[in-house]
Specification:
- This protein is α/β, with parallel strands linked by helices and 270 residues long.
- It has 6 helices and 9 strands.
- A 5-stranded mixed barrel has the order 5-8-7-6-9.
- Strand 6, helix 3 and strand 7 (177-184) form a beta-alpha-beta unit.
- Helix 2 packs across helix 5 (212-220) and helix 3 packs across helix 6.
- The longest helix is centred in the C-terminal third of the chain and has 25 residues, at 245-269.
Length: 270
């Protein structure tokens, strides 16, 4: 596994990707931030050795290296999910590659459903903690000692420093930034009314199908990370309305400008 990671890293270096400072992972309907990047190198996922191929609508499947807010960034325009059939190791491998290339901070985004009924669709939620309901773990199997310890601590999986900066930016820019707990489930189906009640009971404020495997690996790598959810629907089990992927993408697109402003302002400060 480590040999494959080094081959992927060396390939990207050979293409000119050198010392990116910040890694960015963009979720469903959230690829527009790449328009803000002064791109130097763009590589399609299928052209990268050992990289999975994104199969989800709105996940464009491009790795973009360039400058954003004065910093060198490496952005994934589209991520991988367990429901696509990939292993947790494949899903989280790009985070390991980012670290091996020199990334110092990781910013993640996703689209999720609001379980906390005080949070409205179209707003953002800063993830303060998470509940992992995925059936696998990216660290299962033989540990790669070169990348981190066998049993990484998860008492504070999201950087307090990065989160505090995002909270202050949101206040300054008058952006609604809810703060809450993200539950990560397998998908790809949306949840039943009973499942929403269960998720609320165990303490989740929002639910989605990604992010947590990447954050687990980031913590093993000692890579400070922050994650923001765009809340694309309201999951009230007593008044549940049908929702489809087109609606989710539409709401994500509408809220993306606030996310871009948050990330750009944070990157300027790092």
């Amino acid at each position: 596994m480590y040999t494959e990671l080094k081959k992927t890293r060396d390939f990207l270096i050979s293409k000119g990707i050198c010392d990116p400072y910040i890694g960015i992972v963009l979720g469903t309907g959230l690829g527009k931030i790449t328009d803000e990047i002064k791109a130097e190198i763009v590589i399609d996922y299928p052209d990268i050795p050992n990289f999975p191929i994104s199969t989800v609508e709105s996940h464009h499947g491009k790795l973009i290296y360039g400058t954003l807010a004065g910093k060198k960034v490496l952005a994934m325009q589209g991520r991988f999910h367990y429901y696509e059939g990939y292993s947790m190791q494949q899903i989280s491998m790009p985070i390991q590659i980012m670290k091996m290339l020199g990334v110092q901070f990781l910013l993640l985004s996703n689209a999720s459903g609001a379980i906390n009924l005080n949070f409205k669709k179209g707003s953002l939620m800063l993830i303060d903690d998470h509940i992992n309901l995925q059936p696998e773990n990216p660290l299962r199997g033989k540990n790669i000692d070169e990348l981190g310890i066998r049993f990484p601590d998860m008492s504070c999986p999201y950087s307090k420093s990065l989160n505090n900066k995002l909270i202050e930016i949101a206040k300054t820019e008058n952006i609604t930034l809810n703060i809450g707990v993200y539950a990560s489930v397998t998908g790809p189906n949306l949840e039943t009314r009973a499942e929403y009640r269960y998720l609320k009971f165990i303490g989740a404020d929002a639910v989605g199908m990604s992010t947590v495997p990447e954050v687990i690996v980031a913590n093993q790598l000692n890579l400070p990370c922050a994650a923001v959810s765009v809340l694309t629907d309201e999951c009230d089990p007593d008044n549940l309305k049908p929702c489809n992927i087109q609606d989710i993408i539409k709401i994500a697109n509408l809220a993306e400008n606030d996310l871009i402003l948050l990330f750009k302002s944070l990157i300027k400060q790092l």
